[in-house]
Amino acid sequence: MPTVPPWNVDIVLCHLVGTPLQPLDQSSLWLLTQKTPFLLALATAKRVGEIRALSTLVVVQDHDMVLFYLAEFVVKTEIPSDPLPREFVLTSLSEAVCSNDDEWPLCPVRALRWYLHRAQSPSRPRYLFLSVRDPTHPLSKTAISYFLQQLIRAAHQDFSII
């Protein structure tokens, strides 16, 4: 079993509010595809497989978003006699921080809105997260894991330079 190197969430969060990950309208789709699943994973404690199985069906509910799994997805820890909910609420930070606050760039709903705007595709598959190289294909679990690792590594490399 591969070992996971130690990492510090504060270092990663500081990295997420800096350049080149902010402002989101100037950030590359590649970096936005790293940032959005990371914030979603951090905000929801969902596994990579659960993040990959998210559907493009997203419902805005006040400041929050309701996310849905693909119908055929079975959660790894699900018991057939006691199925888990097929949707969950992604809570916005807008109630906790104002838009000019230093922590506003860490809002998972804000990042997801930008991602959905930037990753629009006429031939979009049903999966929420798409391959950056070929947006007609969903992002694989391996790719999501890779993006999360790359983001953590980049944050720690930037921190060690300071």
Automatic annotation (TrEMBL):
Against InterPro entries, the record matches this protein to:
DNA_brk_join_enz
| SUPFAM superfamilies for the chain | DNA breaking-rejoining enzymes
Origin superkingdom: Eukaryota
**What GO molecular function annotations does the UniProt record carry, in alphabetical order?**
DNA binding
- What PANTHER family does the database record attribute to this sequence? CORE-BINDING (CB) DOMAIN-CONTAINING PROTEIN, PHAGE_INTEGRASE DOMAIN-CONTAINING PROTEIN
User: What is this protein's name?
Assistant: Uncharacterized protein
